[in-house]
Design brief:
This protein is of the alpha+beta class and 211 residues long. It has a single domain, classed as Pnp Oxidase, Chain A (Roll), CATH 2.30.110.10. The protein contains 5 helices and 9 strands. Helix 4 crosses helix 5. It starts with 23 loop residues before the first helix and ends with a strand.
């Protein structure tokens, strides 16, 4: 079969203006919990796209760790590629794709670092090996071998034991949304798309987009 012939017709559900809640964060919460209830594998996984100062984009999969009216939070190494890009161009786009529900959500906005208090609370809640790894890994930089990386983790483990302290280079970002779009797959590619745009006064304007 040709790649061009690979296709699926979507027919599980619909999304009308009456279905969509007035606030996009509340609508996201509704869909997110429906994905959890439906046991979608890694429903908290999302693509995070950043760009350099001159507009060259890059994407990777991360896990969302919190969301509320302030925004959508994820954690990483501040000195990673994405961290450097966010330093020079503090905007990003998130994409959730829940194929089992034939849904996707796009979220765009400005990104800011969260507080040290929030960083410490989440870091200390992580499994010990993950905390040690955050110290040992100079994310996005070359490493001689897998063995060299594992040896570095062993060094960190000997140094810190069971009580590693969060390194200054590791922490969270919060994306403050100004655009959120909900996509529900429909038959014949006539998908439902409901978009929310933040107004200058902080309220949300909602409208339907053509597929």
């Amino acid at each position: 079969m040709s790649i061009a012939d690979l296709r699926k017709d979507y027919s599980r559900a619909s999304l009308t203006e009456a279905d969509a809640l007035p606030d996009p964060v509340e609508q996201f919460s509704k869909w997110f919990h429906e994905a959890i209830t439906a046991e979608v594998p890694e429903a908290n996984a999302m693509s995070v796209s950043t760009a350099t100062a001159d507009g060259r984009p890059s994407s990777r999969i991360l896990l969302i760790k919190d969301f509320d009216q302030r925004g959508f939070t994820f954690f990483t190494n501040y000195e990673s590629r994405k961290g450097h890009e966010l330093d020079t161009n503090p905007y990003a786009a998130l994409l959730f794709y829940w194929i089992e529900l034939e849904r996707q959500v796009r979220i765009e906005g400005r990104v800011e670092r969260i507080s040290d208090v929030e960083n410490d609370a989440y870091y200390n809640s992580r499994p010990l090996k993950s905390r040690l790894g955050a110290i040992a890994s100079a994310q996005s930089r070359p490493v001689a071998s897998r063995e060299a990386l594992e040896a570095r983790v062993e060094e960190v483990e000997k140094q810190y034991g069971d009580h590693p302290v969060r390194p200054a280079h590791w922490g969270g970002y919060r994306l403050v949304p100004d655009y959120v779009e909900f996509w529900q797959g429909r038959p014949s590619r006539l998908h439902d798309r409901i978009a929310y745009q933040r107004r200058a006064d902080g309220s949300w304007q909602r409208h339907r987009l053509q597929p």
